[in-house]
Amino acid sequence: MQKLSTRKFLNNRVVWLYIFSGGLVLSTILLGLFYSSVTIPIPTILHIIADQTLGLGWMQEVPGNEEAIIWNIRFPRVLLAFFVGASLALAGAAFQGLLRNPLADPYTIGVSSGAALGAVFVIFFQFTIIGLGNFTLPIVSIVCGFLTLMLVFGLVRLSSRSMAIETIILAGIIIGAFLGSIISLIIALGDRDSMMQIIYWLYGSVGMRGWNYVQLIVPFMLAGSFMLIIHYRELNALALGEDAAEHIGVNVKKGKIFILVGASLLTGASVAVSGSIGFVGLVIPHLVRLVTGPNHRHVLPLSMLLGGSFLILADILARTIIAPKELPIGVITALIGAPLFAFLLIRDRVGRGKTR
Amino acid sequence: MIEVKNLSGGYSADDPIVKGLNFDIQQGEFFGLLGPNGSGKTTLFKLITGTLPLTSGEILLDNTSLFSLSKLEKARKIAVLTQESHVSFDFTVEEIVSLGRYAFQKGILKSLSKHDKNIINDVMELANVTKYRFKQFRLLSGGEKQRVLLAKALAQEPLLLLLDEPTNHLDIKHSLYMLDLLKEWQRTKQLTIFSILHDINIAALYADRIALLHEGTFLDIGEVEVLRKKDQLNKLYEVDIRTQSHPKVPKPQILMTPRNEVSVTRMELGKAYQMKQNDDFIHLEFDQPLRTISNGVIGEGIQWVKHYCNFHVDKNYDCSSPKDELEGWMRDNGIPPEQAVGMMTAVQLKYAVVRTAKIENIQFITVVTAGVGNAVDISQEGDYEREYKIGTINTMVFVDAHLTDGALVNACMSATEAKTKALSDLKVKDPFTNTIATSTSTDSLLIGVTQQGEATPYAGSGTFVGKGIGRIVYEATREAIESELKRKI
Question: What is the distance, to the nearest Å, from the Cα of residue B414 to the centroid of all Cα atoms in its chain?
Answer without folding.
Answer: 28
